[in-house]
Amino acid sequence: MRQYLLAVQFDESERDAPEEEVRAMLARTGQVTDEMKAAGSWVFVGGLEHSDVSTVVRPEGGKVTITDGPFAETKEQLGGFWVIQVDDLDQALAWAGKCALACGQPIEVRPFGDPPR
After folding, report:
1. Minimal CA–CA distance to 84: which of 15, 38, 117, 49?
2. How far is CA 33 from CA 36, 40, 65, 71, 113, in A?
3. One-character DSSP codes across the chain
């Protein structure tokens, strides 16, 4: 079994969806999460606030600097994610398809590095 990050890519330049659409999307994504749990594939899920409330901590010469705002100056940001554990990439992609349909956003599928032996 291998773990994968299913990252929701969100375009923050788009206007916020009406509350009823957000509630419907949350219900759909909740159903997918419940399916993952029933299948034994679910590890963790999380939704993120907009990137404008983030803080970046950077190392510089043995010290750190702290700045407000997103790390990447781009309209596409990480909006949420699932961590799943499945047998292979094909299974991860199948879950990602369900997630993309549920939340209406692109999903980036990324394997976690193999643990050290």
Report:
1. 38
2. 5, 11, 37, 28, 23
3. -EEEEEEEEEETTSPPPPHHHHHHHHHHHHHHHHHHHHHT-EEEEEE---GGG-EEEEEETTEEEEEES-SS-SSEEEEEEEEEEESSHHHHHHHHHHHHHHHSS-EEEEEPPPPP-
Among 26, 25, 36, CA closest to 94: 36
Q: What is the mean pLDDT of residues 18-47?
A: 94
pLDDT (0 to 100) of residue 69: 73
Entry pTM = 0.82
Picking from 74, 81, 69, 73, the residue whose alpha carbon sits closest to that of residue 107 is 81
Helices 89-103 and 19-39, interaxial angle, to 10°?
Answer: 160
User: The dihedral of CA 93, 95, 107, 52: what is its sign?
Assistant: negative
Lowest mean pLDDT among 5-9, 69-73, 77-81: 69-73
State yes or no: pLDDT of 115 exceeds 70: no
